[in-house]
Amino acid sequence: MFRRTSLPAIRRSLRSATSAAVVISIGMLIEATSVTADTWTQWRGSDGNNHAAAGTEAPLKWNFTTGDGIAWKTAIPGRGHSTPLVLDEGIFLTTAEADKQTQSLIKFDRQSGRIVNQWVLHRGTLPADIHNHNSYASPTPAFDGEHLFVTFHTDDAIWLSKVTTSGNIVWQRRVAEFKPRLFQFGYGASPLVEDGLVIVAAEYDGPDSGLYGLDCRTGKQVWKVSRPSNLNFASPIAATITGQRQILLAGAGMFAAYDSLTGKVLWSIDTTTEAICGTAVWDDRRVIVSGGNPVSGTWCVSGDGSKAELWSNGVKCYEQSLLAISNYVFAVADTGVMYCWRTVDGKEMWKRRLFGGGISASPTLVGNHIYIASEAGEVFVIKASPDRFEPIAENQTGDSIFATPVAVDGRLYLRTGVGTGRDRQEYLVAAGRVSQN
User: Where does the source fall among the domains of life (predicted)?
Assistant: First the structure.
């Protein structure tokens, strides 16, 4: 029963509750939902921190070539960098087929990996140019318990579609114009469902640059916060810090937090750099992000509204996000070097080289293990320890990985590619448990 509970509705009730008993009971419900829901409902998971649910396991070793330890692998039509959503109804993934000029949502059977259906949401309106490191299907959808919310950069705008798990399009809305002038790099920000709204970032060097809140039910704009005329790629994320729910977003030379219901700025600090791709992470009272254009660095600020930058360093994690646990944050730099820092003061606990360089996917925490996928198709398993660097395993999985791994069902779901150039074929791979209870 907990899987069908609407978390936005619960949070709205929490905000308005005056009875301590109600607050306690709803808090217990939220905790139960987080623990029992064997799903992955949005970019960086249901809690937004890229942690698998408590009790989730994932394999340490598998062999992509022989199939040992692989439950299934399914060829994906087209290409994309979005991560899969794993829901009760199936697995959902976006893709784009440049030769057909389509952007689609695909549904896979959760048990077998078989493609159940593919629904074209846009046809003939792909952007003329994007960065050769980007894709036409980079944002990950979000799920509110009933519907999927899917964003695409298409027809010179950011479009949001509300789709049922059986593929019926409820509505489609043009969120904002998106016609970058200086750099045609495409789009990458994932939508966020919070408090009955879909929150969408559309940041570029044009008049519609902003953060938007749209009503989940109708698709109508509830609020807009103007953002600087500046190309930025970061996804908004929701976090509770010092008891306050807030939407975090970094880039455009600032680190800011917003109220989800109104879009009101809760706090803002002039720091970071112009272009941020990674999503903010948090630990207790602290919020951390990394980026690299034009200034490379990692920045940690206070998340309690005191507007204080706590520490920074020059390590660049441009496309990939960081991974935070209590009191510590892990980073895999563009150079292939992995770091662990103490969040209270930025002290370097350790650093080690993992690979030669090239990473787009973000590290995922499963239990006490961190899974890291490189652009060369390597998947490293590292102990999530601040005391020392402890490698566990390395698994070559195809030739290239740009999407972040997802852990559900005792499986690790990986979007990988085999081959290069026009011959590159993408697969959705389920490493781990062959049969489910």
Answer: Bacteria
